[in-house]
Specification:
single chain, about 230 residues, alpha/beta, six-stranded parallel sheet, globular
């Protein structure tokens, strides 16, 4: 703790989709295309309805929208085909400021983790393709825990794997469920909005809001100097 008793930030925990990588926008485009091919019409709006949910919870929302017999195998096939074409042509879409922030954190000896609702194998794949996996001291995917965001479990797990108290960790998020999860876990929640802007409820929970990832550097510098 600092002299005033406040918990100093020793670690930073990242969400992934929409925060590090511009995958939320791509997912909406992929589901628009898949929906047209499946005869249900553009389905990109489902991205907003499932932000921050684990796969089982997201599929529950899809069934509620399109019926119990919805063909997830075909949706997955078409979605993966879209992403494969995009990545082959343009690579993983990295959000502005990611590399600068990671270099700063590593250079200043912060611990770094990922807490994503996406399955851990997929998280590690994205991190590897963007050449940033080596920066992270812990990676926690949504399939490792029964409760998804907005439950605090995934952030508590990430803090535990870093060996840090939640109060000494900063969480970087772009979604409502992510901010609720981090806040409920006791981390300092910072929002970098992507597809959704915070309402009054979420705004009240924020430690700060930034326009892009490298703006977090200024927050950390200010926090160190008091």
């Amino acid at each position: 703790m600092d002299e005033g008793g406040a918990e100093m930030i020793r670690a930073v925990v990242f969400d992934m989709d929409g925060l590090m990588f511009d995958t939320e926008r791509l997912c909406a485009l992929a589901w628009d295309e898949a929906g047209r091919q499946m005869g249900i019409g553009p389905a990109g709006y489902m991205n907003q309805k499932t932000l921050g949910l684990t796969l089982p919870m997201a599929r529950k929302v899809w069934r509620e929208t399109f019926g119990e017999g919805f063909d997830f195998e075909e949706l997955d096939r078409l979605t993966h085909a879209f992403f494969s074409r995009y990545y082959a042509e343009k690579g993983v879409p990295v959000k502005p400021g990611l590399y600068e922030l990671l270099d700063y954190l590593k250079g200043h000896h912060y611990k770094i983790a990922v807490a994503s609702s996406t399955q851990e194998a997929e998280v590690r794949k994205y991190l590897t393709e963007a050449d940033v996996l080596s920066y992270f001291d812990a990676v926690v995917g949504g399939d490792r825990l029964p409760a998804s965001k907005p439950a605090p479990d995934i952030y508590l797990k990430a803090c535990s794997e870093l060996g840090e108290r939640p109060e000494s960790c900063m969480a970087l998020e772009d979604s409502r469920n992510g901010i609720l999860s981090a806040s409920h876990a006791g981390l300092k929640a910072v929002m970098i909005p992507d597809q959704w802007q915070p309402d009054d409820e979420i705004q009240a929970l924020l430690y700060a809001k930034c326009g892009r990832l490298d703006e977090v550097i200024g927050l950390l510098e200010k926090e160190k100097t008091g």
